[in-house]
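hey m, so remember when u said the C-alpha cells were messed up on ur end? i reran from scratch. heres the input so u can diff it against urs
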Amino acid sequence: MKTKKVLISGASVAGPALAFWLNRYGFKVTVVERAPGIRPGGYAIDFRGPAMQVLERMNIVDAIKKFETRAGKITIVDKNNKKVASMPDGFTSGKLEIMRGDLANVFYEATKDDTEYIFDDSITALKEDEAGVEVSFSRNKPCRFDLVVGADGLHSNVRTIAFGDEAQFLHHLGIYFAIFTTPNFMELKEMAGLYYGTLGKRIGVFSAKQDTEARASLYFASPAITYNYRDIGQQKAMVRERFEGEEWQVPQLLKFMSGASDFYFDSVSQIKMNRWSRGRVVLMGDAAHCASPMSGMGTSMAVIGAYILAGELQMAHDDHTRAFNSYEGQMRPLVASCQKLAEGAEWFLPTTWVKLWLSQQIWKILPYTPWKNMMIEMPLKAANSISLKNY
C-alpha cells in the first residue's frame, strides 16, 4: 500500500489530534490553518470517560497536566456582587481540565515534527477524481491529496465547499457569546468564577493561569444575526451595543474587550447532517456535529472522533468509503447523546422575568438536593455512550 497523503483543514484540536494518529499509522499529513498560528485563549475544556482513554493512549496526559486547571467554585451574584446562589462543585469540571489554547499548543507540539503545517492559508476549491483530490488554496499552489478532512469548526470551509451552504446544517439555539482574556481585576482565587445574569444576558468572569489573568464571557439571547465571521471589529461593536448600560462589572469588561487580542465571538449552535463524508472528503469535530458549548463535550467528541477515524482508515487500507462509514456509525450515538445535553439552554439564559426568577431559585436549592449529583453525572453518562476499539 502506497503512503497516503491526507490534508486536514483546521489546526485547533480536532485536526492535530487526527494528525497524531495518522502519523502513527504511516500516513503523510498536511494541516492547513487560516490563522497565522495556533490560536490562543478560549475557555476551559475538560475530559472524562473514553476521551481520557484516548489521551492516555496518546501518552500525552503528562504534557496536558503541566497546564492543568481546575474550575473552582462558581457563584451567581447580583449587581452589587452579593451572592445569589452557587453551582454544585464539580459541575463544570471533568477528570482533566485545560484551557483550549493550551491544549491546542500541546497537540501542535506533539505533531509538528511529523506533520506539515501551513498557516495563514485556506482551501478555495476541491476537485475530486478516481485517484484523489486536487486542492486549490488562497495563497499556496494547488496540490493533490488522497483524502481531505474538514476539522475546521462550526463554520467549516470544507463543509461549505463539499456539502453546500452552512444554513442547511446549522441549528441556532438562540444565544450568542463572546469570550476574551482580561487581567484578574476582581482578584479571583483558585480558578473561581462569578456569573451575573439579567434578562436575556449572562456575564461570567473566571480566574485563569494560576490566578494571573481571567477569562470573561458575555452571553446574550437573540434570533439569528447576519454578520461577518471574520470581522472582529464588527463583532466587538455588536457585543458593545448589546451590553452598554448594563450594571455589575460590565463597563470594565467592555473596556478590556476593546483591546483583547484573543477575542472570540460566535453563535451557540449545533450542526446536524445526514452524512459526514462525500467521496474522498470527510468531516470531523464541530464541522460534522457541533453540539454547542452548552454541551461541554465538543472537545471530547473531537478527540474521540480523531482516534476512531484514523484507526478505521488504517484498518480499511485503500477502502476509504468503508472507513468513513465505520467511523460515522461508531460516532453517531455519542453525538446524539452530547447534542441532547444542550437542551434547555433557555434556562441558562432566561428571556422572561418569571424564568429568570425561577432559575435563580433552582440554583439556590440545587446544591442541597439529589439533583446535584444528577447534573454532574449527566455529561459522564453521555461520554460513556461509546466504547473504543483497540486499533
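this time it looks ok to me. The chain has two domains: 5-69+97-170+270-344+378-383, 173-269+346-372. if urs says something different then somethings off w ur setup not the seq
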